[in-house]
Task: structure prediction
Amino acid sequence: MSTTAPTLDSIDRARPQGAWPTLVRGLRLSPEFRDGLGLTLLLALVATAGRVIVPVAVQQVIDRGLRGPGGVDVAIVLQLSGAALLGVVVTSAFGYVMNYRLATATETALAALRVRAFRHIHDLSLLHHATEHRGALVSRVTADVDTISQFMQWGGVVLIVNVGQLLLATAVMSYYSWQLTLVVIVTFAPLVFVLRWFQTRLSVAYDIVRERVGDMLTAISESVGGADVIRAYNIEERTDRRISRAVQREFRAHYRAGRLGAFMFSSGELFAAAATAAAVVVGVLLGVDGQLSEGRLVAFLFLVTLFVGPVQIATEVLDQAQTAIAGWRRILNVLDTRPDVADPATAGGGGVDIPPGPVTLRFEHVAFAYPAREAGAVADTVLHDVNLEIPAQTRVAVVGETGSGKTTFAKLLTRLMDPTGGQILVNGVALTEVRFASLRRRIVMVPQDGFLFDTTIAANVAHGRPGIGQADVALAFTELGLADWVESLPQQLSTRVGERGGSLSVGERQLVALARAYVANPDLLVLDEATSAVDPATEVRLQRALDGLTRGRTAIAIAHRLSTAEAADEVLVFDNGRIVQRGPHDDLLAQDGVYAGLHRSWVAGSAGGRAPVAR
Amino acid sequence: MSTDEAVAAEETVADPGRDVVASEVAGPGVVRRGMRILGRAVLTEPKPFAIAVVGAAVYGGMTVASATVFGRVTDRVIVPAYAGGAVTRGTLALAVTAILGVALLKAVGIVARRIGATYMQVKLQASYRERVTRQYQKLPLSWHRRHSTGTLLAHANADVEAAFWPIAPFPFSCGVVLMLLITGVILVRSDLFLAAVGFLVGPAIAVLNWRYNRALEEPATLAQQRRADVSSVAHESFDGALVVKTLGRESAETDRFEVEARRLRDELVRYGRIRALFDPLMEALPNVGVLLILAVGVWRISTGDLSVGDLVQFAYLFTLLAFPIRAIGWVLSDMPRAVVGWERVQGVLAATGDLPYGSDRGLDAEGAAAADLVHVAFAYESSTDGQAGSPVLHDVTFEATPGRTIAIVGPTGAGKSTIASLLVRLADPTQGSVHLDGQDLRTLARGELSRSVAIVFQHSFLFDDTVRGNITLGERFSDKQVRAASELAQADGFIRALPDGYDTVVGERGTSLSGGQRQRIALARALTRRPRLLILDDATSSVDTTVEAAILHGLRDARLPATIAVVAYRQATILLADEIIFVDRGRVQATGTHERLLETVPGYARLVTAYADEAVRRERRRSDQAVQEAEAAS
Result:
């Protein structure tokens, strides 16, 4: 039976959004940008006024100091220059305060944005994490935010000041001569369309650049993460070639975007010249008719440069704005991605807590299919119609071949994924109703890959129960029968484990991961082949320790070493996504089913027929 | 360090935190060192630089020319027009042509400058990224262990970008310098007093720039460092997403990230505030210059030494200069960041500790190899200072004779994987030596060892590539060879069931496959190479027992012309071995056949019979219970 699979709400699925809506949403996202923005803009306005001081001074000097009724008047010129100087000093001071406020607000806002995006990425389910490249996820909270920072701290200021300047220049120009102002505006109008044309193309070009940067980072991080395989197989050259390809693709995309920007930036220059020429021609004609003074015409031409400047700079800033908007879009895409496994505490409803104490589990017609990459694809169903009740305080072993659905089962009951059919109840409450804060404290899973953080063993264990003391960590290892192992380490609990726990062997990492879950003291402990790389003697010791300690709580162990199954109260046998057998070890062994087969090969493998009989 | 203390206060078990190298702040002579980077960049990419500089020069020249045109237009067109004199259409047309012509050339200059500069910048970035990543491949694993993935990514990305950041405005600023020179000459030739104003304001801008970039130096460096910290926390945290989820640590991780994000913010704010002070100053200075020119110019006009047109031209020139003169400021203000980035990149390129290769290529091409370790001791380098830590192997000596299978057995953490990694020379022993066919591994040429030896790691790493690509690793193996190896690794069946079979892309780190499937692909990768020495480092730990049995029987029945060394716990694997090396606490405790060790070495017996003993113990307890219950019932 094939059903249509639900599609995963992937991060970069097409969310058509223009540059402007993205910018608006980006700004709206951070209240820190808005706080005090009014005052900052006011300051910007004053600072901008400084831009017209000089042209106005030039006009006044020419009209009153040079062409005044009394001929050249040095005193007036000095007065005017002095006043203008004062104006420049005051507006610069305002500019300083404005920049200061903007830098503070911008960086505060962006730090919050980084944190928010980071948190949201963690809120996305494992399925999302599996489909996204790590390097690309990292770049969303680093490089993407940096592009916005550059724009907001520099480009944004420039943009604000220049828009102000544009308006002010227009106002002063209109005061001098509305006809000439009209001429200038009409000449400049087509530039807006030209710039828009470039802008759309540039937007696409920079999106591609960012994507290529992400690919490049992925290629590089892979070469670093797989360093030992690369060494052992002498494939340094091939790795170099792969990275080169990614680097060259980034180079080409970047260069193409830059080239487009070059043409865009120069277009402003041509329009500026056209405006100046038109102003001269019309100005001379108007002036001859006695409607415009010489000083005003000269000042007007100065003002045209003030008009041109912002448009030119704006094109420069647009270049940067494109990059920033692309960055913003990528962050918005993250924030817009709906976590498909949502915490009821945040997703509207209040959710419930599981009271401390024994945990019962109930599976009702539970099915799971991996989401299809594209809509309409046939579902890849890995779990079919699982009906099950696990009473409190039982120890369950889950066995079956690879791909039989064991790990999916574990991920569903710990709510790392949600079933695509049926439901799971914990103590009679739907799992989806349980608040994460409660769920993650009461139900803890130890995954096979004992991922450790790059810090000490003690600090890693403390992740399981924040606030735990060094002595408690030591006690946990003692209770698990691992005190000897800890003693043998160079700096005992203070030993640093390296990146991903790389300084420890895989088995040792699993010991730390187990201790980490152990101190969390959950009511339901799920072990997903958590001791697969540990030596048999240690594993047996661990198992005995856990047996004693899990008494009174529910424990589910997924194992391919059947020694775990032998000790369990109940064994669940998975085959092809279904539970085909269940019951105590001895009963299952008596039946001629899948379990008996698994057990035979296990005995052949581990006990080797040479197992000593009771000594 | 107050933030560190805050973190420590939050957790009773303190995370010692990252060792932030805050002292890496660029020293004196930043501009000099920055100029050296630019000089080297120019020598590497002379052609685009030449194009960009010519473009900038044309732009600069045309900027001055546009001021001249402006002055001429004032003198020849506007003033006569207002003086009541007739302005001919021809003169007006000439003025328009001049204005437009100059602008066209200016535009061409801009296009040339920007294209040249962009090409130069991205080309240099690309080539240094390649150099840095190539160096990563050359540096030994001990070096890799000392640096986090985040840091290495930052060197290849952010640091390279920072190093060549000032390249983009550099040709522009060269053009501006030219423009300033021309302006200087014109000023001196027309009026010495106005020239004096220019020479007063010019150096003032230069001094201001210098102060500016001195002030930015430290926050720039620290910001770069903080950026790397933010990146490395994010990388680690996303890497451990599963653990973060299962322990409900999302909020704690977010707090950890927030600490780093705040530290970065503090530096960026400091940086921004310094810019906030200098930017308005940089803008005000040319304006002050214009006002000075007006004052001095009017005085010169009153004495009859200057025309109104000249004054207008100079004043106009100053307003035009206000924008491009800042290009120099851009180059200079990005210099500290560039120097820091460059020096970090150079740090990678200059890093040593490469495992030097010998020149011998004399290994046999066919037949099983002999491997042996002689008095080997090994200590991992400390992750913080690169000094050798406490030894994990002591005086290890053993031999694997051709065609035999040896099993390295021992408790978790005994040093088995370290022995395996020494056999493929991922590191060299700190004492003693490792040999293949009697040759010290250190004397072998590059690539020679990997032709004979293949290892399957405990933790199988897959590349973001197709299954086939992951098996061949880019070497030319026929489909038949790949299939044969995959069959032996019990991988052919599930691979063919994948959506695109052998051409299915497995995704980053192979996350779309199960642990056992990844291990089997890694095994196929090793087997395709028909190694003369095959090392399996607990390589089937995630594989089902039945599948494992099939793999082991397959390996035995295939009668590979290879010596096999397996690190294993399971008896089935151990029983396949001709000889056992029992390792505990970094020492070889015993060697011999399974039977002999079982009888004579209690530690070994305890280890390999643990499951069976446990089963027996459990059985006995159960029957005891049954007896007790029966007694209680009766």
Observations:
- Chain B has three domains: 29-350, 371-600, 603-634.
- Residues 1-27 of chain B have pLDDT under 50 and may be disordered.
- Chain B touches chain A through 194 residues (CB under 8 Å).
